[in-house]
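hiii, so i know i said id send this last week but things got crazy w the move. better late than never?? heres the sequnce for the chain we talked about at the cafe, plus the structure i predicted for it. fair warning i was half asleep when i ran it
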Amino acid sequence: HLQTALDIFEPPYNTPGTQQQHWGIFLGFRFNPSTQNQFISGVDNVQIKNNIISHCSHGIHFYNNQNITVEGNQIYDMSLGFGAPDVYSGGKGIAVYNTEDDNTVGNYTIKGNYIYECEFAGIVLDVNGTEDWVNLTGSSIEGNYIHDNVGDLGAWGGIYAGLKGGFGIRGWHQVQGLNIKGNKIYNHRSIDDSYPYIGGIRINGTKDLLVDGNEIYNNERGIYLGAGITDSPGVTGNEIYGNDYGIYINTGTISNVEINNNQITNNSLYGVYNESTTFIDATSTWWGHLTGPTA
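okay and structure toks below
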């Protein structure tokens, strides 16, 4: 239980090509310079509360964990780290990972944190099962302030050449049963408008996803729904305004997704842009005008 205990700063940090990744808090991995590093399952039942974490590659990094609470922390100024040749990672406020043979992650509560100025994303969910969905049922990202997580990843070269950071919440692969609710997510824009995937929330490969009651504004894409989303309760009760695209639905396989009971207004290009061939139910939405949606 880490509560009101950590005030983590570690400058100077992350000069491109000169330093390794480093973490504020890392649970689920053993580092040993004299032997092979090891993943450790079962680092569970942990609470991380009321800390300040800054100037790292990853603020809080999880591997194969269950029953986790991250609450009331201030996490900011995360930069990309430099690992082995052409292996880069970092710029992430909170990162949740699993090894592909361990689907026993779950029951995360990420609540009431301030997460900002991370070069890649405020929160990253990168869980992947070899055969089955990774069940995050009971997990929620709620009541956080997530903003201004933007960076030029291309400056690091290698596999990041040409890429930009800029995600409030980024999830992909085989996430099941996640609730994103009651957050304020804003100011995620590419620094030079050259990277088309930036957004407040970007989700791919998700089942039983609920995005509910968030305020999402001044992002290139308020919510970006990518391929592989299926059987989701959907996007409901959100205020989505002042973005270029309120909700952007990409090409690829998407099924059984509903967008209802939202306020989607004053987005400069589209309120909802559906690039897929799937019918999307966006009824019972206030579009800012009695005649219906325009932008």
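btw The two ends are 47 Å apart (CA to CA). thought thatd interest u
miss u guys!!
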